[in-house]
Design goal:
Keywords: Membrane, Signal, Transmembrane, Transmembrane helix. InterPro entries: At5g19230-like, At5g19230_dom, CAP_sf. There is one protein chain. By secondary structure, the protein is of the alpha+beta class. The chain has helices at about 1-40, 50-60, 85-90, 115-125, 130, 175-190; strands at about 45, 105-110, 135-145, 145-155. Helix 1 (about 1-40) packs parallel to helix 4 (about 115-125). The model is unreliable at about 10-20, about 75-80 and about 165-170 (pLDDT under 50).
């Protein structure tokens, strides 16, 4: 019983550590971007959970891919990678293409995801023109491996990332719900 309990605590610790690291990167980057925008007298971007969902799907697509001049903020114009499964990503996030038309997707590859370098990859690159634009009001951020994806959203019907009609807020399981399910599963295991 003691070994099982120790193993359970270890799994829970590793699971929570993964949440904390990823959330920490997103939080630091959002703060840095908003500080950058404040320096330009622009409004702060607010977190958009649907844009974050899309960012997460795109970041997973990039995970494991090497950094090059055809990826991320160093992309040579005209060589950007297209996402043939973009519609699948939208479906996963309960979105349709009409609510993402005005959005901007900005991937960046930063080995080690050093916070200052990550921020620089957005504020001192071709991406800064989007961060400087007043039309963007929301943001979704996700990271996988050496990749960070920032998705900017607007307040317009063609860029606000509102869920597709017929989708339910309960259809997607948020990380908080995943954690709750994990804890319930652990509790169940302890009762056995």
């Amino acid at each position: 019983m003691g070994l099982r309990l120790a193993l359970l605590y270890f799994v829970l610790f590793v699971f929570l550590l993964g949440f904390a690291e990823s959330d920490d990167m997103s939080t630091q980057l959002l703060k840095g971007i908003n500080d950058y925008r404040a320096g330009l007298n622009l409004s702060s971007l607010t977190e958009n959970s649907n844009a974050a969902c899309l960012a997460e799907q795109l970041a997973k697509q990039f995970k494991g891919q090497e950094c090059s001049n055809t990826t991320g903020s160093d992309t040579v114009p005209g060589t950007e990678e297209q996402f043939p499964n973009y519609m699948d990503f939208l479906n996963h996030c309960h979105l349709n293409a009409t609510v993402t038309q005005d959005a901007e997707v900005m991937p960046a590859c930063v080995p080690g995801l050093t916070p200052d370098l990550v921020l620089t990859n957005f504020t001192k690159s071709q991406y800064n023109e989007y961060l400087n634009d007043t039309k963007y009001a929301g943001v979704g951020i996700a990271d996988e491996g050496n990749w960070v994806v920032v998705v900017l959203s607007t307040d317009t019907p063609t860029g606000n990332f509102s869920p597709a009609s017929g989708s339910s807020w309960a259809a997607a399981i948020s990380p908080c719900h995943q954690l709750l399910l994990l804890l319930l599963g652990c509790l169940f295991l302890l009762m056995i």
